[in-house]
Design goal:
Distance between the termini: 16 Å
Number of helices: 4
Strand content: under 5%
Order of helices and strands: HHHH
């Protein structure tokens, strides 16, 4: 699995980590679907299955990794 989130995120406060990960999710969604998506929860709710939202989680993880989070 890898080190706990706190260890991987260094000196970031818990709120900063959550905000940063939420921003990466929004970034991944908007890169694929454009700026018409108002929020991550509304994006998730708009899909009947979990396939597309989980794909966006994978892309968000890649963006977070690229930024060292």
């Amino acid at each position: 699995m890898g080190p706990p989130l706190r260890a991987r995120c260094g000196d970031l406060a818990d709120d900063d980590v959550g905000d940063s990960l939420s921003l990466r999710s929004s970034d991944a969604i908007r890169r694929t679907f454009g700026d018409d998506v108002p929020s991550v929860p509304s994006f998730n709710d708009a899909h009947g299955t979990s396939r597309t939202p989980l794909r966006m989680v994978d892309q968000a993880a890649g963006l977070a990794d690229a930024r060292g989070l």
